[in-house]
Amino acid sequence: MTPQARLRRIRYWLVFFIVGLVLSGVTAFPLVTELRWVDGLLHQDWVPAPGALVDFIGTVRTGVETADRDFPFLAYGTDWLAFAHLVIAMAFYGPLRDPVRNLWVIHWGMLCCVAVVPLALIAAPIRGLPWWWIPIDISFGLFGIIPLLIVRRHILALAATEADPAQAAPAPVSA
Q1: By C-alpha distance, which of 88, 92, 82, 145 is closest to 114?
Q2: Rounded to the nearest 10 degrees, how much is the dihedral formed by the CA atoms of 60, 66, 72, 73?
Q3: Residue 17: other Cβ atoms inside 10 A
Q4: Which of 9, 25, 50, 68 could be stapled to 86 by a disulfide with Cβ–Cβ 3.0 to 4.6 Å?
Q5: Cα dist. 134→127, 131, 140 in Å?
């Protein structure tokens, strides 16, 4: 693979990852609206949802609506959660511009993805979430690390090419 093709692939996966972070962040703002929509959707006859999920989302909706009505300042915490996702996404601008120089950001992102696992395992039971919700939370770290692993592999290969320019061009064919 040429260095240019490798750089395109790195940027593709980084944009994919950044878009995922931005979407995760932006969707943390309108929680009440989203929960009303999801709860309504789960009550449709054509949606095959397990009863435990329907009940849990209904409980979450009631809790968030009550907090929004009686204690709207609590939503400020999810505003900061959304902001954090957006700021984290901005950190990946460095690897987008110069992946080899900013490989450390990819490693940091991978560590963040791994850190999702103990957080979910510790905080979810403390906060009273059902056991079956924990794998859903853990999946964000597991699915998030996949594009970063791909990007890391390509950055290391690109760095090797930059260190040895002879690898960048195929050897001439002699007649």
Answers
A1: 145
A2: -60
A3: 23
A4: 25
A5: 11, 6, 10
